[in-house]
Design brief:
By secondary structure, this protein is mainly alpha-helical. It has helices spanning about 5-25, 25-35, 40-45, 50-55, 70-90, 90-95, 105-130, 140-155, 160-175. The mean pLDDT is about 90.
Length: about 180
């Protein structure tokens, strides 16, 4: 497959997403601006959602699972990596597009669930080291940090700093939400 063409298709897709959002993304315009035929696009990406997820994943990576020996510092590094990706590649792509009903399942399978598992690994290590209570609700901790990132950067359009994350994560781990009985 022509890698240069694939690169152009994904770059044009990202440009259109930033400019027009998911609803405004027109595959005919991607084809025209990338200089390819319909078959070249659909052979690579059979659906609009597949194309969008590929365009997003082309510019992000999972990153390493930090292991500094401190759950707070590991989660701060994990959160900052994600926050910096959003800043580099446009919050509009990451947030607004990601939660489209067609896009989300693909994005979850190919990237978000892996980021979630990396955060879970950090918290499981913290439990094993005695830094975090065994009955801490790890999913709630992860969702709280992810929700903060999403709300603050997309709804409010305000950046989060390392200190913001450190304060919130420290508070969450000092008095974590607990798994409920049953």
């Amino acid at each position: 497959m022509d890698e240069a063409l694939t690169t152009r298709i994904l770059a044009v897709t990202r440009e259109q997403l930033v400019r027009d959002g998911y609803a405004g993304l027109k595959l005919d315009r991607v084809i025209r601006e990338a200089g390819c035929g319909k078959s070249a696009l659909y052979r690579r990406y059979p659906t609009k959602a597949e194309l969008v997820v590929a365009a997003m994943l082309d510019v992000v990576s999972l990153g390493e699972v930090p292991d500094t020996g401190s759950a707070v510092e590991d989660l701060v590094a994990h959160a900052m990596y994600n926050h910096e990706l959003q800043a580099q590649h446009g919050t509009r792509i990451t947030a607004l597009v990601l939660f489209d009903a067609e896009v989300f399942p693909l994005a979850w399978d190919r990237w978000l669930s892996l980021r979630h598992q990396a955060a879970r690994t950090i918290l499981e290590r913290a439990i094993a080291r005695g830094e975090l209570a065994e009955d801490a609700d790890c999913d709630m901790i992860i969702d709280t940090v992810a929700g903060l990132t999403l709300f603050r950067s997309t709804v409010k359009g305000r950046p989060l700093t390392e200190q913001h994350y450190r304060s919130i994560i420290s508070a969450l781990l000092a008095d974590p939400p607990r798994l409920s009985e049953g």
